[in-house]
């Protein structure tokens, strides 16, 4: 799989509704994963049903990713969109990470995560938030 670059939007509890709306607009295949599926239902309440990660892939080649703000973190309207770079090419993606995070601020170190991928998040020197996700090569 080649690397891809796409927007990633954070919502305040309504990611499911928003992504279902975008699916109706653009068509395609929508995948939803909840915090509860990954044992991250901290704080009680309805956190287990909130969306940890959603991905809409359309026949036109669009990819839109989203999720609800993680439990325990604040939602900040106006800063709720990031750019995601993902794929299987470890060297390529680590190179992007090094350049993007080098003059910026790392908020999530690039390391193995509970879903199995290597993931990191940073804000570059221009104030743009980036998420880098390296998945294992598929056989």
TrEMBL record:
Q: Where is the Glyoxalase/fosfomycin resistance/dioxygenase domain?
A: 5-132
Q: Name one Pfam family in it.
A: Glyoxalase
Q: Which PANTHER family match?
A: PROTEIN YJDN (PTHR33990:SF1), PROTEIN YJDN-RELATED (PTHR33990)
Could you identify this protein by its name?
VOC family protein
Organism name = Streptomyces wedmorensis
The uppermost taxa in this organism's lineage are: Bacteria, Bacillati, Actinomycetota, Actinomycetes, Kitasatosporales
């Amino acid at each position: 799989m080649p690397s891809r670059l796409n927007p990633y939007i954070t919502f305040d509890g309504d990611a499911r509704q928003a992504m279902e709306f975008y699916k109706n607009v653009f068509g395609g295949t929508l995948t939803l994963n909840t915090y509860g599926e990954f044992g991250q239902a901290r704080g009680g309440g309805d956190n287990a049903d909130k969306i940890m990660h959603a991905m809409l892939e359309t026949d036109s080649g669009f990819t839109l990713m989203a999720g609800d703000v993680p439990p325990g973190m604040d939602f900040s309207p106006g800063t709720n969109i990031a750019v995601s770079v993902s794929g299987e090419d470890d060297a390529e993606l680590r190179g992007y990470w090094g350049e993007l995070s080098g003059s910026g601020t790392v908020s999530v170190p690039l390391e193995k995560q509970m879903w199995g991928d290597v993931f990191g998040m940073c804000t570059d020197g221009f104030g743009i938030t980036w998420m880098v996700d390296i998945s294992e090569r598929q056989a």
